[in-house]
Amino acid sequence: MRALILLALVGFAAQLVDGSLGMAYGVTSTTLLLAVGTNPAAASATIHLAEIGTTLASGLSHWRFNNVDWKVVAKIGIPGAIGAFAGATFLSSLSTESGAPIMSLILLTLGAYVLIRFTVAGLPRENHGKPLRKRFLAPLGLVAGFVDATGGGGWGPVGTPALLASGRIPPRKVIGSVDAGEFLVAVAASAGFLIGIGTEKIDFAWVGVLLLGGVIAAPIAAWLVRHLPPRILGSAVGGMIIFTNVRTLLRSDWIAASATVQILAYIVVAVIWAAAVVYSVRAWRRDKALEAELKPLAAEQEPTPAA
């Protein structure tokens, strides 16, 4: 019972992050599952099975609000499903000893992206730069799907920035299309894991409580994003992901670092983490102050309605 409650809290926390940042459900939940000693393939399989429900609900919600470009979904979702199936098959073939460091390395990279992305720039914004070519979308989906399955997450952090950079799709349709495409990725990855490791290593009670925790957190996340700045949350979560996966890597057979090296590494990561959060807080306060200064000017420039 204690383990199920812990897993429900993992799903709850991961959905709070994802609902506030628009990404990082898989990265956060897989990091937490690895931290409690879960087998890498079983951890990713558990997350993707739970995501079948969460991504379906999310995709339908975005569809109802006209936030989905189905052409984009097809161009990235189908290759993403192929990449996810391949990634699940690859991860299933690895032993726990070799799989955990590989997954932690991927998660560490994604955590660094989240930390830097939100600390430096805050929420992704629309970029009116050179449009992406169509032939780029299929490889993008393929790579994002493979990373998502082998790392237990990464579809959003890999796919969303690339689509935003195109400037051809409004941000709301980027997020909606990525979320809708993630359903195909979750189904394909789950199928790959079920073929690769079977059902004996997957506890479906875990899947259920992760899903339950995510469902409970969804409306709270919608409230949270209105009160807690995503820029600050992104820095905090990115640092947590980095810290946890650095710990896993240093203790793995790949590195087997001494206690002294581990402590020094933890101190360095903690200092960088704290500095990023402080920087994000100051940047958010600066932006709010600038917004307050510009608001009266914008009101003065508004045309006066004719009598």
TrEMBL record:
Subcellular location field: Cell membrane; Membrane
InterPro entries (alphabetical): TM_pro_TauE-like, TSUP/Inactive_protease-like
UniProt KW keywords: Cell membrane, Membrane, Transmembrane, Transmembrane helix
Origin superkingdom: Bacteria
Membrane topology of this protein: Multi-pass membrane protein
Listed Pfam families: TauE
Positions of transmembrane segments: 42-60, 72-94, 100-124, 136-155, 175-197, 204-225, 254-279
Annotated family: Belongs to the 4-toluene sulfonate uptake permease (TSUP) (TC 2.A.102) family.
This protein's name: Probable membrane transporter protein
Species this chain originates from: Nonomuraea typhae
